[in-house]
Design brief:
Elements (H helix, E strand, L loop, with lengths): L5 E3 L10 H11 L10 E4 L5 E4 L8 H5 L5 E3 L6 E3 L9 H5 L6 E3 L4 E3 L4 H11 L6 E3 L6
Antiparallel strand pairs: 1-8, 2-3, 4-5, 6-7
Helix pairs in contact: 1-4
The chain binds iron/sulfur cluster (2 copies).
């Protein structure tokens, strides 16, 4: 179980405004570049919006798939992180993630996941005027 804050999203309240994505990209890249945000929002065929965040899975497929161990589970917190210095940008973790969360940052040349969960949560919470995201100290998003 993940130790610390995690981001929980109530997709029923998501309007697809993308403010969380904008805020996340600014936090992580210093720029408004939606493709590089760690949060992504998918629009379904039924016109529903599904914000994607890392579930920090207990047995993460992305970690098992990574050939360089860049994608790893932090021993102390159980968070799934990507060490950019070890990432070769092969995209295997992206394919391996069953939730469609991990994605490739073409500018940085590495894959991104919820590498800095606290920052991402703060950005999300600040950008979103609705009280849908909540943080809990010890539960996972999945
Ligand atoms: S990137 Fe996907 S598979 Fe890996 S921990 Fe997050 S949700 Fe699980
Ligand atoms: S893109 Fe990077 S983190 Fe993902 S599997 Fe390849 S080396 Fe590992």
């Amino acid at each position: 179980m993940v130790d610390g804050k995690v981001l929980i999203v109530d997709e029923r309240k998501c309007t697809g405004c993308l403010l969380c994505v904008i805020a996340c990209s600014v936090v992580h890249t210093g720029d408004i570049d939606l493709e590089r945000a760690h949060i992504q929002v998918w629009r379904t065929d039924e016109d529903r919006y599904v914000p994607l965040t890392c579930h920090h899975c207990e047995t993460p497929s992305c970690v098992r798939a990574c050939p360089t161990k860049a994608c790893h589970q932090d021993e102390a917190t159980q968070r799934v992180l990507i060490d950019a210095t070890k990432c070769i940008g092969c995209g295997t973790c992206v394919v391996a993630c069953p939730f469609g969360h991990a994605h490739y940052d073409e500018v940085a040349g590495v894959s991104v996941s919820a590498t800095t969960v606290t920052g991402a949560w703060s950005a999300f919470a600040s950008a979103n005027r609705r009280p849908s995201p909540t943080s809990t100290p010890t539960t996972t998003t999945g």
